Amino acid sequence: MKAQENHHCVVCEPKHHERNNYYYGKQFTVRDLQLEQHYFLGKMALTNRAILGWGVVCGLNVEICDHTLTVQPGLAIDCCGRQVMVCEPFTMCLESLTKECPGRTYALCLEYTECLTEEIKLPPDECDGGDRHENNRIRDHYRIRLKPWEDKCHARRDDYLPCPDHLKHPASQDPEPQCPPPTLHSHLCHHLECHNCDCCACVVLGQVKLSDPPAIDACTHRRIVYNNSMLFKLIECYHGDLAHIVDFNWRKKTHGTNSRRVSWEWFSDLMREGLTVEFDHMMDPRSLSRHTFIVTLTFADPDSGRIRTERVPPEKKPVVERHENCSRATFYASTDWLDDERKLSALRNGFGVEIILRGSNIYTDNSNGQPRKALDGDFIGEQLPTGDGTPGGDFFDWFQVEAWTHKPVSVQEEEY
Question: 0.90 exceeded by the pTM?
């Protein structure tokens, strides 16, 4: 084995990339052919470390059974941009080391090495006359070993890039607006840096503690290469677990028709039954209130003709119920408001109903240990589930109630 020595890996090392210039009559030497390899290997390494990054690409899962540590096959890129491929399970016995250094913590390091293979015999040299041996191949290989955790190289150090969220401030503070605010492009432009691998070429697969039995943390300090497919999964993971509205109990009556007009009687029954909205997540009952689940009536004032609005007073907080892995919230109107006949004088000519859920202030329940996230509530194009893939947004829907018609009760229909 011919291990690579730890060294700096910088963008401008070497300072110049040179390749062979071919011409008729060119004399090829070992130097020329080595340059041919080094040029393309250097270009590939530069692309890997400067564009893709470094760390574990796939696989390389680590587990400990009794005192045997096993690293599964996988692929990594070290901080110099070199590909490190493990094609078969690697095992290491920790029993003797546990006895020698009980309780000590180590980094499980994967490092790139080169192995010289295919030894061949060469003709004797004219000077010494002895046999000569050389290796015909250089094999890309790896080395897995434990290094003391005290080495500063082993703690994961992700390249820190501050986010423009520092421009945000609590609503209780007086703002200092920037008009216009900086663009995301200009923000990134002032934070571009070329990072050097100024430490070691160890790809940390996990932190090993020599307890009894030994324990492995194969996640916290593992650096990962975020390739395109993984970045897509991260975006899908973050945005995919947002809560959405998937149905509501007035939908079948008010959607699918051009007019959205309903009768007074149907509206009255609906309000007594309650307005129910269904979610695809369990919602935090504390986030649903008269301030976030709002029902408003719009109508023309019979005296002035101006448009007036009246918010329907709730009987109580919206009732949130779990339904399997989902939930539903029901808005109940005040019984006093429902039984108030005086409202007929203003509403008898018909009115509009507007229903709003303030998604930015309605959150998922965090009883499963996951952080609360705002409802993705935008009712875009009147399509369900709601949302545009970002947290927050108001759910808004409406329908029109026709004018009230009084039907006198005949003598035969009266009850005695």
Answer: no
- Structural contact between residues 16 and 35, judged by C-beta atoms closer than 8 angstroms: no
145-151: Cβ within 8 A, 24+ apart: 145/109, 145/111, 146/92, 146/97, 146/106, 146/107, 146/108, 146/109, 146/208, 147/106, 147/107, 147/109, 147/202, 148/104, 148/105, 148/106, 148/107, 149/104, 149/105, 149/106, 149/107, 149/207, 151/107, 151/200
C-alpha 390, offset from chain centre: 12
Q: Which of 256, 254, 281, 240 is nearest to 391 (CA)?
A: 240
What's the CA gap between 52 and 388, in Å, rounded? 29
CB 62 within 8 A of CB 206: yes
Phi then psi dihedrals of residue 100, to 5 deg: -75, -40
Token pair listed for 22: 């071919």
Peptide bond into 177 cis (omega under 30): no
What is the per-residue pLDDT for 328? Answer: 94
More confident site: 353 or 178: 353
What are the phi and psi torsion angles at 398 (to 5°)? -150, 160
How many CA within 13 A on the CB side of residue 324? 3
